[in-house]
Amino acid sequence: KGLMAGKRGLVMGVANNRSIAYGIAKACAAQGAELALTYQGDALKKRVEPLAAELNAILAGHCDVTDSASLDAVFANIQEQWGNIDFLVHAIAFSDKDELDGRYIDTSADNFNKTLFISCYSLTAVAQRAEKLMGSGGSILTLTYYGAEKWMPHYNVMGVAKAALEASVRYLAADLGPQGIRVNAVSAGPIKTLAASGIGDFRYILKWNELNAPLRRTVTIEEVGDSALYLLSDLGRGVTGEIHHVDSGYHVVG
Ligand code: 0WD
């Protein structure tokens, strides 16, 4: 029963119950998916454990994408427990808070590298490992933001990372298409999460979207989750390399 019945998926990037990854995980679980969640460090483990229990999900372990051994361990763990997976959600991004304010031109080389590595390269790193566990095809989904396409105040180096992430979606889609693995992104409108709280003037961005998006409101993690279902389930079986906006239509006016 359900759009995701019989499907198993790994969801990376749940930090708490406000995380977009949690909204997607909830939507998948409600449609019958079996889930595995990763967490970044012990502090987040405490938050993720009860969410995993609520979703009947297994914990696939600690994963910091800057530590390839932790990535390998997570995928080895999944392979051991499940053998294969049908989908993967990548909802991971990071940049130094000090540089999500002010001007892009002031980005340091260190934070540029870190931001691009964690927010962009990590999708490729997980796709390399997921490919081996998606023998009969699969669906990989990442999260991006409109700041990849247009200048946005304070988004700075994260906008550059998201532009590279969106290009990665297209290249990965071409590489993995012959094996029936689809790679897509949801470009979500602004949502108040832990990661978003690091962005300068975020409340103003939310308000601006409320006033100017065609639907005259912001989106919720539940709405992002429901749209993600289309790309993760067989409903989206003909779709790959796509950047799907779930943003109350803001991208047509902004
Ligand atoms: O407005 C928003 N919130 C939008 C977010 C609009 C459009 C897109 N997005 C994207 C983000 O850029 C990100 O890619 O959605 C994705 C999920 O972000 P979120 O749900 O907004 O934020 P959050 O709940 O904080 O989850 C992101 C998590 C991290 O949380 P914190 O806040 O502790 O950094 O990404 C994970 C971590 O759990 N993460 C990592 N995971 C593994 N290794 C790493 C890392 N090195 N760094 C961050």
From TrEMBL:
EC number: 1.3.1.9
Residues at the active site: Y145 (proton acceptor), Y155 (proton acceptor)
Organism annotation: Agaricicola taiwanensis
Keywords for this protein: Fatty acid biosynthesis, Fatty acid metabolism, Lipid biosynthesis, Lipid metabolism, NAD, Oxidoreductase
Gene: fabI
Protein name per the record: Enoyl-[acyl-carrier-protein] reductase [NADH]
CDD domains per the UniProt record, alphabetical: ENR_SDR
Pfam families noted in UniProt: adh_short_C2
UniProt pathway: Lipid metabolism; fatty acid biosynthesis
GO biological process: fatty acid biosynthetic process
